[in-house]
Design brief:
4 copies of one chain form a homotetramer.
Chain A lengths: L1 E3 L2 E6 L4 H13 L9 H12 L9 E9 H7 L5 E5 L11 E3 L9 H23 L4 H4 L8 E9 H11 L6 H17 L1 H4 L7
Helix pairs in contact in A: 1-2
Amino acid sequence: MKIIEQTHQIIQKPNNPIQLIEQAGRTCYKSEDKITDDSAEIFAKKLVKLKHESVFEHVVVSVRFITNRGVTHELVRHRMCSFSQESTRYVKYNDMEFIRPVWWDKWTEKEQNIWIESMQNAEKAYLSLIKAGSTAEKAREVLPNSLKTEIVVTANLREWRHIFNLRCSKKAHPQVRQLMTNCCKEFKTFIPVLFDDIELHD
Amino acid sequence: MKIIEQTHQIIQKPNNPIQLIEQAGRTCYKSEDKITDDSAEIFAKKLVKLKHESVFEHVVVSVRFITNRGVTHELVRHRMCSFSQESTRYVKYNDMEFIRPVWWDKWTEKEQNIWIESMQNAEKAYLSLIKAGSTAEKAREVLPNSLKTEIVVTANLREWRHIFNLRCSKKAHPQVRQLMTNCCKEFKTFIPVLFDDIELHD
Amino acid sequence: MKIIEQTHQIIQKPNNPIQLIEQAGRTCYKSEDKITDDSAEIFAKKLVKLKHESVFEHVVVSVRFITNRGVTHELVRHRMCSFSQESTRYVKYNDMEFIRPVWWDKWTEKEQNIWIESMQNAEKAYLSLIKAGSTAEKAREVLPNSLKTEIVVTANLREWRHIFNLRCSKKAHPQVRQLMTNCCKEFKTFIPVLFDDIELHD
Amino acid sequence: MKIIEQTHQIIQKPNNPIQLIEQAGRTCYKSEDKITDDSAEIFAKKLVKLKHESVFEHVVVSVRFITNRGVTHELVRHRMCSFSQESTRYVKYNDMEFIRPVWWDKWTEKEQNIWIESMQNAEKAYLSLIKAGSTAEKAREVLPNSLKTEIVVTANLREWRHIFNLRCSKKAHPQVRQLMTNCCKEFKTFIPVLFDDIELHD
């Protein structure tokens, strides 16, 4: 058993996102003649202000998240996303990994120990079932929410805006909020004009 | 701790599904003058054969499923569905319920006991965390896939056809296959013309 | 050639929409024990305020619109809707109908006459092509935006709220705004609690 | 007035589509250790055979189509696509362009002349309305299906497979079939493994 931290890694991002957005967006107005070397950013900013967000859909970003299965049960409900997730039916675990809850330091030692022991029990039950002849898809019944899972999420920039607005909010579950806040910070760095306005709460 | 069986209950269904389908479908061809007292069934059957399935979208059915969270993690990925699910963030469990795996009788007594003990451990850990001051949304970390959950699923008839084709197949996980096979049988009873062709494997 | 006004007709609506919403919504909180004879409206109002709009997806309404093809080209882009529309490939027109633009009285007589003559020309060209042996799907090339079309639109209440917010706004095209404003007024009558807050601009 | 041919142009495509697909797809099975220099193509081919098509959603391609508004009225109904289309509300036409029907050579000279004259009449009516003071969004009422329009369509590879299967079929409208058949040929060239199996009918 290993306890690990949740992380994210951007595995696909466009070279010239706002140039593509300008190119698609100006199709609507037939104003391609207004494209200059530095017009894209101003154009994109205007679209944000006008809430003409459909144009942002032409650019996608893919992120690999390593997080727990409680978080992914929430995530996979987003409709305009694409997901490839580590399968508990086809993957048979030997060395099991669990995601350390983000509120770890706020838990008392007692709470920490209850969680650790619970993970140990779950791993033991899983391995015993496998040893007794159960397939992975049956043994998975005993796996807890904290189980580490990997998921590749591809979404367009309008959907990422929606995800970050929802999942970085104070109302979000702390585990998903931390994951998405860290991810959003990276989006703010490489496409600031489209993610500047998302509020984060560390 | 209680061990219960998974179930489904249809909570919303239309009065005259195939009449509504005929009414909508004939809009495409402007052939409303061909509507008679018994034309709807033949018309619907023709749409199935022609794969003009978009017309089936005008009728929805809502089902309340009581199943486990492993199953719902799969279910909620369907995009054209609407879901309202028992929240592990806002519901605090006292008397915990778990769903008996559908392959129960094929498990050895040893496997059954591993599962039972694992559920007992999970419940104990959850209640200890709550007692130690954790909120429900934090204590949920230790909850296993077998935890009972309730979910109301609303989908149109085209999507239900898609769900049953996918989830009643031999390739589906046995827990979701049993749930959906039982549900599909009921659909076959009240709208046979649209569900006759779905193959079931008990 | 006939000139007609655009209209809408609700052809499917639920009997107890807010009761169904309460039933589904309370699944999330497992608060079904709080259901009383008059709790549904208060519950639904609270969901609107909390923006917990996904629960509204369990109820659908179907509307038959008679409008023009310029309007439907906009409408069919809504993703969470289902459409069955009069086909210009399979319907062969004899007596052609056109939708009177909603700004008719603001047009000068000259503008009105240009439009009328243009419709007459389009009809004549279409009928000449058919007479010369063209199929409907080829002759349709000359049909104008003002051509009357029928479309059955089924959407859930969350999506209808989205449609009305978008299409009844001052920024919407006047033809679609009038159509949707009239339709929304009817929704406000039969499910006031969910449509009270939509602003209309006659 | 100008008569032009419909065309398409791919404006965004990935560098290593099948490598990205392998990377995402192997997340499901945790078989990343099987990645070699030439494993991606075999892996992708296997996904096609197994119909594990969701993995293809991680790669998007954007195409700019120049076609007519009859075609785009069909296209924009695809739900998993993103569209930016030349607006008839915000673009005011001076020199109007129309798309030559793909069956032009099969039409008799008489049919050709009816179409040409009809386009001339439509253009004249539009310009007269503008001259009489109508805005573009009002004058558009007289515009015909054959009007040239530009649309940028972004979709993932699973959706493109779906579009080509539907729109390149013999049942498709000839105008959309030609457009999509030409486009599909290009997809077959740069990602053969995913588009080999699409049947074309020139």
